[in-house]
Design brief:
Structural class: mainly alpha
Number of domains: 1
Helix content: over 70%
Low-confidence stretches: none
Strand content: under 5%
Radius of gyration: 20 Å
Shape: globular
CATH class: Mainly Alpha
Oligomer: single chain
CATH topology: Farnesyl Diphosphate Synthase
Number of strands: 0
Number of helices: 12
């Protein structure tokens, strides 16, 4: 009986650690105003007219998928984050001290995502499988490769957007294409924002290797490409995205630029979806 009690206590302790790790990831990312892909995916699902039950299932799947991808990224980066100035060190130290439990949590989340996707549809199953591969390859290799970090974000943005539409929806794929380009822009701003700490940690992102000025040029070119894509394939009003090229791009102002771009992207996205919903 005593051995059984000890085993139960061990299980409960492991569950509490896993819960703390997942909660830390969620709170940290929300504070950084990330995980916006969940909102874009669900608003796309609404615009496409998906039913309430389908929408609720996709919302739960998308929330778990975000936790999964951010935890994978944090597990791979825990050593870098411990050394980086200005990071949430208490959270990072807890993750480092319980890294085995964190990877076990990653495995459990991956299994749950695959099971959830298989029970829902072929589309969500494919979404789960693709994202497992994309986030592991990105976090382990591509995020430390200049230019490839931006390309990987396009793949990630596209695969995350798949939460919001069935595989057979040609309209869904067109809108997901826009999100893929915009994810490249936000990644460029992200590496600009992190350029000082990444340079100190010798992390070879696009901003570190090519420099902030070249990365800013890339971001502006991508913004123009997104505007052209949206105007031609979705609605002419999508050309408003080109206004983002006027935002300053440098490490000192990257946080403010991040917020301004997200406001522009969000307003344009919602306008495009409103036009899709009521003026198809």
């Amino acid at each position: 009986m005593r051995a059984c009690g000890i085993a139960v206590n061990d299980v409960l302790a492991a569950v509490r650690v896993a819960w703390r790790i997942a909660a830390d990831v969620a709170i940290y990312r929300l504070r950084k105003r990330e995980a916006g892909n969940l909102a874009t995916s669900l608003t796309l699902a609404v615009a496409l007219g998906l039913g309430p039950a389908d929408l609720a299932s996709r919302a739960g799947f998308g929330a778990l998928l975000n936790l999964f991808v951010y935890l994978v990224n944090d597990c791979f980066d825990v050593g870098i984050d411990l050394r980086a100035p200005g990071r949430d060190n208490a959270r990072t130290r807890f993750l480092a001290e319980h890294l085995t439990a964190a990877w076990a949590t990653v495995g459990a989340m991956a299994a749950l995502l695959v099971a959830w996707g298989a029970l829902h549809s072929r589309g969500l199953l494919l979404t789960a499988l693709i994202n497992v591969v994309v986030i592991v390859v990105y976090s382990r290799v591509l995020k430390h490769r200049p230019l490839l970090d931006l390309v990987a974000m396009a793949a990630w943005g596209l695969s995350m957007a798949m939460v919001g539409f069935p595989l057979h929806s040609a309209t869904g794929w067109r809108y997901a294409g826009l999100l893929a380009i915009l994810c490249m822009v936000t990644e460029a701003v992200q590496v600009l924002r992190d350029e000082p700490s990444d340079r100190a940690a010798n992390v070879r992102t696009t901003a570190v290797v090519l420099g902030p000025r070249a990365t800013a040029v890339i971001a502006r070119v991508l913004l123009v490409a997104a505007a052209v894509y949206a105007a031609l394939l979705l609605h002419p009003i999508g050309a408003a995205l080109a206004l983002g090229a006027l935002v300053p791009f440098d490490p000192d102002r990257a946080n403010a630029s991040w917020d301004r771009l997200r406001a522009l992207f969000g307003l344009t996205w919602l306008t495009l979806l409103a036009l899709l919903r009521w003026h198809p």
